[in-house]
Write a structure and sequence with these properties.
Helices cover 78% and strands 0% of the residues. It has 230 residues and is mostly helical. Helix 1 crosses helix 2 and helix 5 packs across helix 6.
Length: 230
């Protein structure tokens, strides 16, 4: 037998009751569940759809559909990192590399003018904090529209990077720029090196994050067109 639209909607509701609320996750699970439910109900016409669903759910073991959800979300994360590395490669192979390089050059030149060898670090931190604020303001308004899709929610890890970046900026400014008396010894130098490496990563990433977020939103828009649910 072939499930009709009301039955498909009922299956989606039953899936959501199991704790899978993201629309694309529901459809991913539905792809694996619907066929099995159809077969069960065809073999036993007296079997109700909820009962058939429970039997299918039980057949997935004690973790239910968790493995399907995890596999789907891992695929999304892998795709997002692919976007990141592609954007990173593109920025270094195009004229856009002049923007981060040019800004660093200006920061260093300003350090010379200000006669402070570490003034460039303070400028990088201010630039990062301002850029983080701009990214949050620019994309936060889209959150309400796309928050029901795992393909978008996965990109929220970008905002975790921003939280990490703010912490690094604050600690970097305090330790590297201000506390001169705490910078002696091998461990202090390693810590300073780690902070500078993290700041370098964040500085480069800020030129890439909008591209990654835009591609993630495009993927979600494509899913909305397929599933017809926003």
């Amino acid at each position: 037998m072939k499930l009709n639209k009301p039955q498909i909607e009922q299956l989606k509701t039953l899936i959501s009751y199991k704790g899978y609320t993201e629309i694309d996750v529901q459809f991913e699970i539905l792809d694996h569940v619907a066929c099995k439910v159809e077969v069960m109900m065809q073999d036993n016409p007296k079997l109700s759809l909820p009962d058939a669903f429970q039997k299918v759910h039980a057949s997935f073991g004690i973790f239910g559909f968790s493995e399907l959800e995890e596999s789907y979300k891992k695929m999304i994360q892998k795709r997002l990192w692919g976007y990141y590395w592609t954007a990173l490669k593109d920025i270094f192979l195009s004229y856009r590399v002049i923007f981060p390089v040019g800004l660093i050059y200006l920061f260093f030149q300003s350090s010379i003018l200000l006669k402070d060898s570490k003034a460039w670090l303070l400028m990088v931190i201010v630039f990062l904090l301002f850029s983080f604020f701009w990214v949050v303001v620019r994309y936060w308004g889209k959150h309400k529209k796309y928050k029901k899709y795992a393909s978008y929610i996965a990109s929220n890890s970008v905002f975790q990077v921003i939280n990490f970046g703010v912490i690094v900026c604050m600690q970097g400014h305090s330790f590297v720029y201000r506390q001169q008396d705490l910078q002696e010894g091998i461990f202090a130098q390693i810590f300073i090196g780690s902070i500078l490496l993290a700041l370098t990563f964040l500085y480069i990433s800020i030129f890439i994050l909008p591209t990654v977020l835009d591609r993630s939103i495009s993927d979600t828009e494509a899913l909305i067109k397929v599933y017809g649910e926003g």
